[in-house]
Design brief:
Length: 268
C-alpha cells in the first residue's frame, strides 16, 4: 500500500499509537541521506562522531544492520564502525562481524557481467564533463550531480546504450543524480532485509523490524512483507518534496538530524 509522504506521521507517533514504544527492535538503516546528509561528492559523506555514538548506543540495545547501495568496505570506512552487520551493494554483499559473509543463491554469479558493464560505462561517460563512475561489487553507479543540465540527456543515452548492449541482462534504478546499473536479478534491499531477519534469527515475537531509508531503492524494503505488515518503514524526506512522493513507508522524518533524534530515542 502506498501513501503520499506529506500525509504520514513521524515514527515516534506510530510506535506510541501501536503501543510498541517499549518493544525490542531490529533496525535496518540506509546510509546516504539517512546517516549522513547528501553531499556533492560521494567520498565526502562521512558520518559524524555524534551519529556514530548514537548508532553504537542503539546497537547495544537492538539489532542494527546497515543496508546500503554502497560497497560494503566503503560503508564501514565512512561510518568508522566495523562491528555492525552490513548489507552493501543494495543487499548483494552481506557481512556479519560475528558469522562472516552471509551468502544467498540469488545474488551470485554476476561478477563478470558487472566488470564488463563498468568498463563500458567508464568508456562511454568519459567524454561527458562532470560525470563520476563509481564501480561497485554488484553494480555500477553513474553519478551526474556535477553535470550541466543540458548534458543530462547525454548521460541518459550512455545508460540506454549500455542496457541495449546487454538485452535482458541489466536493470537501472534511478537515485539522487545517479543511475544505478545492476544485473537483472530478483534481489534488492527488501529481499536482503527478509534474508537478514531469517539468518540473524530476528523473527522472534516482540521484535519489531524498522527500516529507515530515503531513496527509490529503499521502497523495495518499505514494501517487504516484514516491514509493510507489522514492521515500520520510515522515509527520510525534505518536507518540501513530500507532497510529490508516493511511498510504501508508514512514517516520515525530515532530515538526518531527525533520524539521529529518533534513533537516540530508540536507544533509551
Ligand atoms: O543506499 P544508500 O546508502 O542510500 O546509497 C545510495 C547511493 O548513495 C551514494 O550516492 C548518493 O549520495 C552521494 C553522497 O551524498 C551523492 O553525492 C550522490 O549524488 C547520491 O546519489 C553512493 O555514491 C551510491 O553508490 C549509493 O548507491
Amino acid at each position: 500500500m502506498s501513501a503520499r509522504a506529506s500525509q504520514l506521521p513521524d515514527p515516534g507517533t506510530v510506535l506510541t499509537e501501536r503501543g510498541a514504544a517499549d518493544s525490542s527492535y531490529a533496525v535496518f538503516l540506509d546510509y546516504d541521506g539517512v546517516l549522513t546528509p547528501i553531499v556533492d561528492r560521494p567520498m565526502d559523506a562521512i558520518m559524524t562522531d555524534e551519529m556514530r555514538r548514537i548508532v553504537s548506543e542503539l546497537a547495544k540495545r537492538a539489532s542494527v544492520c546497515v543496508v546500503s547501495g554502497r560497497d560494503r568496505p566503503v560503508i564501514s570506512q565512512l561510518m568508522g564502525l566495523d562491528d555492525l552487520v552490513v548489507a552493501g551493494s543494495h543487499g548483494f554483499d552481506i557481512h556479519s562481524p560475528e558469522t562472516g559473509r552471509i551468502t544467498h543463491d540469488a545474488s551470485e554469479g554476476f561478477e563478470e557481467l558487472v566488470a564488463e558493464v563498468t568498463r563500458e560505462v567508464q568508456e562511454r561517460a568519459a567524454g561527458i564533463e562532470g560525470t563520476l563512475v563509481e564501480p561497485k561489487h554488484a553494480s555500477v553507479a553513474l553519478h551526474y550531480r556535477a553535470v550541466e543540465e543540458s548534458a543530462h540527456a547525454q548521460v541518459q543515452r550512455v545508460v540506454d546504450d549500455v542496457l541495449a548492449a546487454h538485452p535482458g541482462e541489466l536493470r537501472v534504478t534511478p537515485g539522487k543524480f545517479v543511475h544505478e546499473i545492476q544485473p537483472k536479478i530478483d534481489w534488492n534491499k527488501g529481499r536482503a532485509v527478509e534474508h537478514l531477519l531469517d539468518v540473524l534469527d530476528l523473527r522472534a515475537p516482540g521484535v519489531l523490524p524498522i527500516y529507515v531509508g530515503d531513496d527509490i531503492t529503499d521502497e523495495d524494503a518499505f514494501s517487504a512483507p516484514s516491514i509493510a505488515d507489522g514492521g515500520l518503514g520510515v522515509l527520510v524526506i525534505d518536507p518540501a518534496d513530500a507532497d510529490a512522493r508516493e511511498t510504501a513507508a508508514a512514517a516520515v522524518l525530515a532530515d538526518v538530524d531527525a533520524v539521529g533524534a529518533f534513533l537516540d530515542q530508540l536507544a533509551r
